[in-house]
Amino acid sequence: MRQREESHLIMSEEGVLGLMLMAILGFAAFSRRLEMSVVTMPLVFTAAGYLAHLAGAELVQAEAQLEVLKILAEVTLVLILFSDASQVRLSQLRKNAGIPLRMLLIGMPLSIALGTLVAFWVSPDQPWTLALLVAAILTPTDAALGQAVVSDEAVPAHLRESIAVESGLNDGLALPVVIIAALAVVEASGGMPGETAGSLTQFGIAQITLGPIAGIIVGGAAAKLRDFAVGRDLATEAYQGIFFLAAAFLCFVAAELIGGNGLIAAFVGGLTFGNLRKGKSAFVAEFMESEGQLLTMATFAIFGVVLVPAGLAHATWQTLALAILFLTFVRIVPIMLALTGTGLAWREKLFLGWFGPRAALRLSCSHCWSPRPIKSRVWTS
């Protein structure tokens, strides 16, 4: 306890705030150069949060850390999913729908199957049902970590849209597997009442069905209301940004109220909103490049304070092997197999496979392939 109290003297709350502000200043000042390197915003602010932890400071009280992280992460994901989906054009997506469909319906099941084998290999003393549960949880991609790619016009539209669609829908597709595996794990360890198991199954079905319904209804209504107001010059440009925020969170809240998945609702709502509204909405991109980025920075800073120390404290060779294999082999090989026959170049398949659960460790498109001035040559199929 005494060591803990002394460690707090190293960095006060003001010191933590100063560290975060300096990290923001530094990243913003060199953002153009950093975006062309492997040093990404999630990496920078996760590291800043971990440094704050090492200095002995706490961004939030220990008993509230996980709850604060959960709320902040949900807020950030809702905005990113709604924003990214609103930029996806269904007319363009239909031309290349085979890519995300193959990634979701072929690549994802293959990743879960391969991940189950890997998880069982590193911990053979654990039941295979637990290995399946681990694989189903780790396989879905992360929309927040892939945002830099989805918003980068240097990447061809069909690849950006494929990543956005996959990251928006794969959580919902993984949920049934998670529930089945969880039920199997509990059953193997002593079982649960049939009534409880049935309730959990109903919960999963409601999550993946009611979420999209809420998103379509709210997103469509929001698009029509915005067009009505803008068409009659009733809304200012500034308040259109607030309208966008309210629409995103209303999709989430509406889904949660009826028992659906709020994050799926945010994605489907953004897709509906973006394709039904008339004209362009510059405020969406402007918001995500400013206020949205600040939310993402805060999320990863708290992630560095709360989860990184916990992960390192429980690290073993098994967890390290599991992390490395899921970040590479388990994701890339199934995706490249799933995209066989699509006509994509091997670089494009590798690119889509690389943006898995660890998109924060991405190779920047310009850094990975070639300088931006010749990007058209790089992405030729």
Question: Keywords, please?
Answer:
single chain, 381 residues, mainly alpha, Na+/H+ antiporter like fold, 0% strand, globular, disordered N terminus, disordered C terminus
Could you characterize the architecture of this molecule?
This protein has about 375 residues and is mainly α. The protein has one domain (about 1-380): Na+/H+ antiporter like fold. It has helices spanning about 1-10, 15-30, 30-35, 40-55, 65-85, 90-95, 100-120, 130-140, 145-150, 155-190, 195-230, 235-255, 260-275, 280-290, 290-315, 315-325, 330-340, 345-355, 365-370, 375-380. Helix 17 crosses helix 18 (about 345-355). It is globular, with a radius of gyration of 22 Å. The N and C termini lie far apart (about 60 Å). Residues about 1-10 and about 360-380 have low confidence and may be disordered.
How many domains, as an integer?
1
Chain-averaged pLDDT: 77
CATH topology: Na+/H+ antiporter like fold
CATH structural class: Mainly Alpha
In the CATH hierarchy, the architecture is Up-down Bundle
The fraction of residues assigned to DSSP E strands is under 5%
Find the structural class using helix and strand composition: mainly alpha
Rg from Cα: 22 Å
Tell me the number of helical segments per DSSP (H or I, 4 or more residues long).
20
Approximate shape: globular
Give the biggest beta sheet. Answer: none
Write down how many β-strands occur, each being a DSSP E stretch of 2 or more residues: 0
Head-to-tail CA distance between termini: 61 Å
Order of helices and strands: HHHHHHHHHHHHHHHHHHHH
Uncertain regions: pLDDT < 50 for 5+ in a row?
A: 1-9, 358-381
Helix content: over 70%
